[in-house]
C-alpha cells in the first residue's frame, strides 16, 4: 500500500509548491492597493470624491496589480504546477501496475485528453484572464462603487482589507481563488484520472484516504475512519449513512438546500462521488484498490470471497 502514499505525497507536494507562495503574493496585492489608493481625493468628511483624478487611479489599478502578481517567480511556479500533472499521472500508473494490468487503448486516449484539457484549464485559472476576472476585477468593483457612491475612505480600506487579506474565519481573495479553482482542480483531476482507470479495470473497492485537519468535514472524518468502501455502498454513504451514522444528523450535518453533507458540490451524485469526494477544497481521495488489500472480515459482508 506504500504506492498509495506515493500518489498522495506527489499530489500534495505539487500543490504545496505553489500554494506556499500565495500568502506573499496576497500581501503584495494589498500593499500595492494601499499604495495606489492613498492618493484618492477625499472631501472634508473623509469620503471618496467622484472626480476624474480618482477615476484615473481606478484605471491604473489593473495594470499595477498585474505587475505585482505576474512576476517571473509567479510564472515559474505556475509552470512547475502545470508540469506536476505528468508527475501525478506517472505515480498513478505505477500504483495500478503493482496489482493490475494496463488500461485499454481507448481509456489511455481518454486519459491523455483529460490531462490536456485539465492543464489548459488550470493555465487559464493561473493566467491573467482568470485572475483578472476573479480577483483584480472585484478589487476594481469595490473601488469604483466607493468612488461613485462617495463612500467613506476608512470603510473602503476596511472592506479592501477584508476582501484581500481575509480574517480568522475567511480566506483572502487570492488564496480563496487559488484553493477553489487550482487546488480543487488538481485534486479532482487526480481522482477522475484514477477512477477512469479503475472503471476500465473493473475494480470495485476503494480506500478513502487523506490527512484529517481541524477544518476537515464531518463526513470526511467518518469516511477516513470507515476506510474501505465497496462500489455498491456509494449510494448509502452519500444519502443514507456511513457505517450507521446517519447523513444529515448532528454527527454528519448537511447543507439545507442540497441535502448533501456539508461542503459537497451541489451537483454531487453517486456517479461522480469518487471524483468529487468531500467537495470543494477536499484533499481526500477514493483510491481504488485490489480486493486482496481489503480485510477479509469486510469483504465477507459483500460475499466477495472466492470471486
Attribute tags:
single chain; 307 residues; mainly alpha; 2 domains; three-stranded antiparallel β-sheet; two-stranded antiparallel ribbon; 12 helices; 5 strands; 6% strand
Protein architecture, described:
With 307 residues, the chain is mainly α. The chain has two domains: 1-202, no CATH class; 203-307, no CATH class. It contains twelve helices and five strands. The protein has helices at 2-19, 22-37, 52-69, 72-97, 105-126, 128-149, 153-165, 173-201, 218-226, 234-239, 273-276, 296-300, and strands at 205-209, 228-230, 241-242, 245-246, 285-289. The protein is elongated, with a radius of gyration of 23 Å. The two termini are 22 Å apart. The mean pLDDT is 92.
Amino acid at each position: 500500500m506504500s504506492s498509495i502514499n506515493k500518489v498522495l505525497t506527489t499530489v500534495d507536494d505539487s500543490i504545496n509548491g505553489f500554494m506556499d507562495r500565495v500568502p506573499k503574493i496576497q500581501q503584495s496585492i494589498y500593499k500595492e492597493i494601499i499604495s495606489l489608493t492613498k492618493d484618492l481625493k477625499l472631501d472634508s468628511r473623509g469620503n471618496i470624491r467622484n472626480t476624474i483624478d480618482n477615476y484615473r487611479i481606478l484605471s491604473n489599478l489593473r495594470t499595477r496589480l498585474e505587475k505585482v502578481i505576474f512576476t517571473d517567480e509567479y510564472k515559474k511556479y505556475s509552470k512547475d504546477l502545470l508540469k506536476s500533472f505528468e508527475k501525478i499521472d506517472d505515480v498513478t500508473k505505477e500504483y495500478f501496475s503493482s496489482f493490475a494490468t494496463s488500461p485499454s487503448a481507448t481509456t489511455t486516449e481518454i486519459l491523455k485528453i483529460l490531462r490536456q484539457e485539465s492543464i489548459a484549464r488550470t493555465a487559464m485559472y493561473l493566467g491573467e484572464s482568470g485572475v483578472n476576472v476573479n480577483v483584480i476585477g472585484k478589487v476594481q468593483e469595490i473601488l469604483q462603487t466607493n468612488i461613485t457612491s462617495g463612500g467613506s475612505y476608512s470603510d473602503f480600506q476596511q472592506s479592501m482589507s477584508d476582501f484581500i487579506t481575509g480574517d480568522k474565519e475567511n480566506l483572502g481573495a487570492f488564496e480563496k481563488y487559488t484553493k477553489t479553482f487550482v487546488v480543487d482542480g488538481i485534486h479532482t483531476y487526480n481522482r477522475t484520472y484514477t477512477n477512469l482507470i479503475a472503471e476500465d479495470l473493473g475494480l470495485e473497492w476503494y480506500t478513502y484516504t487523506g490527512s484529517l485537519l481541524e477544518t476537515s468535514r464531518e463526513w470526511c472524518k467518518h469516511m477516513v475512519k470507515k476506510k474501505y468502501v465497496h462500489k455498491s455502498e456509494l449510494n448509502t454513504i452519500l444519502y443514507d449513512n456511513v457505517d450507521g451514522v446517519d447523513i444529515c444528523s448532528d454527527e454528519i450535518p448537511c447543507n439545507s438546500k442540497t441535502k448533501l453533507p456539508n461542503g459537497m458540490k451541489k451537483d454531487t451524485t453517486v456517479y461522480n462521488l469518487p471524483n468529487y469526494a468531500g467537495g470543494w477544497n477536499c484533499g481526500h481521495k477514493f483510491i481504488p484498490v485490489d480486493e486482496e488489500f481489503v480485510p477479509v472480515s469486510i469483504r465477507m459482508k459483500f460475499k466477495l470471497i472466492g470471486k
